[in-house]
C-alpha cells in the first residue's frame, strides 16, 4: 500500500492570478536507458480541469508526482502558486503542499483503520489545531459530500472498489485543497461506477472551486471531466485541445485515443 510521505503545515489561502501550475522543461529518467520525460511543458489555470492522456509508461503519473515531490525530476522548473517548488526550503514547500490534494491510483487507505480513523488520522497529522468535536464534524461533512456517511465505521476491506475511491477522495477533500491531482481515478472500476466517480470530480470542482490535473486512460472520464486535454508522446506534450478538437485531429496517432 502506498503511504503518505508528506508533512504539511497550515497555510492561509491566497487568491492567485494566472496559471496556478506551470511546468517547464521537465526531464526525468530512470537509469541510463529509460528516459520517461524529455522536456514536458504545461500550465493549468485556476479552476481548470486538465486531463493528461498517454500510453502506459509515457510518464503521466510521474509528471504529477513531481509536482508534490514524490518524484524528483532531473531537470526543469515546476511553479505552483507562483513558487518554484524545486528550490523551496522544506518549511516553504510544506506550505505549498498543504494546498494540494493527491488521489492515489490504488486509493492508499490504511487497511488496519476504519473509514473514520483513516480520515481522523489525516486531520491529526495535518490539522492538529482542531478539537475532537471539530474533527468529528469535518469527517461527517466530507463523508456526506461523497455520499458515504453510512460507511464511517467500515474497514477498507468491507468496501467495494468504487467506495474505496470515494473514501480516498474524502480523505483528500478533508484538508480543503485548492489543487487536486488525480492519478487514474477510475482505474479498475466498472463503467457505471467510473461514471459516478467522474461526476463526483465535477461536483468537487463546482462545490470547492478546485483546480485539477486528471491522469487517465478512461476516455469516458476524459470526455466528462476535461476542460482541456494534453497527450504525452515520447516524453513531451504531443497534442493539446478540447476533447472534440482532438477527436477530429488530423494526426492519426492522436485520433487513435478516441476510437
Going across the biggest sheet, name each strand in turn: 6-7-8-3-9-10
Rounded mean pLDDT is 89
| Continuous helix count | 9
Q: Report the span from N to C terminus.
A: 34 Å
> Helix amount, in percent?
25-40%
The number of strands is 10
Give the biggest sheet.
6 strands, mixed
Derived structural class: alpha/beta
Principal-axis shape equals: globular
Rg over alpha carbons: 18 Å
How much beta, percentage-wise? 15-25%
Poorly predicted sequence stretches spanning 5 or more consecutive residues: 1-16
- Give the SSE string: EEEHEEHEHHHEHEHEEHH
Chart the SSEs and their pairings.
Blueprint: E1 19-30, E2 34-45, E3 49-54, H1 60-67, E4 75-80, E5 83-84, H2 90-97, E6 100-103, H3 115-126, H4 132-145, H5 161-173, E7 179-183, H6 191-208, E8 211-215, H7 219-225, E9 228-233, E10 236-241, H8 243-247, H9 252-255
Parallel strand pairs: 3-8, 3-9, 6-7, 7-8
Antiparallel strand pairs: 1-2, 1-4, 4-5, 9-10
Structure explained in plain terms:
The protein is an alpha/beta fold and 259 residues long. The chain has a domain of 69 residues. The strands form two sheets. Strands 6-7-8-3-9-10 form a six-stranded mixed sheet, with helices on both faces. A four-stranded antiparallel sheet has the order 2-1-4-5, with helices on one face. Helix 4 crosses helix 5 and helix 6 runs parallel beside helix 7. It is globular, with a radius of gyration of 18 Å. It starts with 18 loop residues before the first strand and ends with a helix. Keywords: ATP-binding, Nucleotide-binding, Transport. This is ATP-binding cassette domain-containing protein. GO terms for molecular function: ATP binding; ATP hydrolysis activity.
